[in-house]
């Protein structure tokens, strides 16, 4: 999962953000929206931006890693509240994503019957692939909105991550591995 520090491409995703806001504002019944984005920090920034710019009452849920039943988890966290929209974060971190998606597929009618509002689920590439594979019936109800990480943000993130990993390797004595394997001392 890509997590650059400060995504600079909110403007690049403005039309997709408007599409998402429109879908939430104009649905007074259950709808499933998969917000496809490979950056957690961009997901959070876009959600904040969505709430700042649009008059939408959106509740957010961050899933615990142990969740295996999306419907019952969401239902218990909402209680009797019925927001204008609900955004769910954290599927990419679930320990048992296959079980959670399979259970969601089985419980799809419960979502439709008990959630009279748009349900937005943030999904990275892996989650989207697994959604299609393991919850095809539930996925067939979904609309997908695509959000992109700017190339410059991605390059900056990769460079920073590479530098941090290399520093950690050297910190724990990896310099001697360089000497043994490559014939030079890393510093």
Q: How is the biggest beta sheet arranged?
A: 5 strands, parallel
- According to CATH, the fold-level topology of the largest domain is Rossmann fold
CATH class of the largest domain: Alpha Beta
- Tally the helices: 9
Number of E-state strands: 5
Low-confidence parts lasting 5 or more residues at pLDDT below 50? 1-7
Classified in CATH, the superfamily of the largest domain is P-loop containing nucleotide triphosphate hydrolases
Number of domains: 2
Reported CATH architecture of the largest domain:
3-Layer(aba) Sandwich
Strand composition percent: 5-15%
Return the average pLDDT rounded to an integer: 84
Order of helices and strands: HEHEHEHHEHHEHH
| Range of helix content | 40-55%
Per the principal axes of the C-alpha atoms, what is the gross shape?
A: globular
Strand order of the largest sheet: 2-3-4-1-5
What is the rounded Rg?
A: 20 Å
Structural classification? alpha/beta
Separation, N- and C-terminal Cα atoms = 29 Å
Mind explaining what this structure looks like?
The chain is an alpha/beta fold and 187 residues long. The chain folds into two domains: 11-149, 3-Layer(aba) Sandwich (Rossmann fold), CATH 3.40.50; 151-187, no CATH class. 51% of the residues lie in helices and 14% in strands. The chain has nine helices and five strands. The chain has a five-stranded parallel sheet with strand order 2-3-4-1-5. Strand 2 (58-62), helix 3 and strand 3 (85-89) form a beta-alpha-beta unit.
């Amino acid at each position: 999962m890509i997590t650059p520090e400060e995504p600079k491409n909110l403007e690049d995703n403005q039309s997709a953000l408007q599409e998402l806001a429109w879908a939430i504002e104009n649905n007074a019944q259950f709808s499933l929206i998969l917000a496809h984005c490979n950056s957690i920090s961009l997901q959070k920034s876009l959600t904040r931006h969505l709430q700042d710019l649009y008059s939408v009452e959106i509740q957010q849920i961050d899933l615990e890693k142990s969740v295996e039943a999306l419907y019952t988890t969401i239902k218990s966290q909402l209680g009797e509240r019925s927001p204008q929209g609900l955004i769910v974060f954290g599927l990419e971190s679930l320990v048992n994503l296959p079980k959670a998606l399979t259970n969601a597929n089985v419980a799809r009618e419960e979502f439709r019957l008990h959630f009279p509002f748009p349900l937005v689920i943030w999904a990275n590439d892996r989650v989207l692939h697994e959604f299609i594979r393991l919850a095809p019936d539930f996925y067939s109800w979904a609309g997908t909105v695509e959000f992109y990480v700017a190339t410059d943000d991605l390059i900056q993130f990769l460079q920073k991550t590479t530098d941090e990993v290399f520093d950690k390797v050297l910190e724990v004595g990896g310099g001697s591995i360089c000497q043994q394997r490559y014939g030079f001392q890393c510093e």
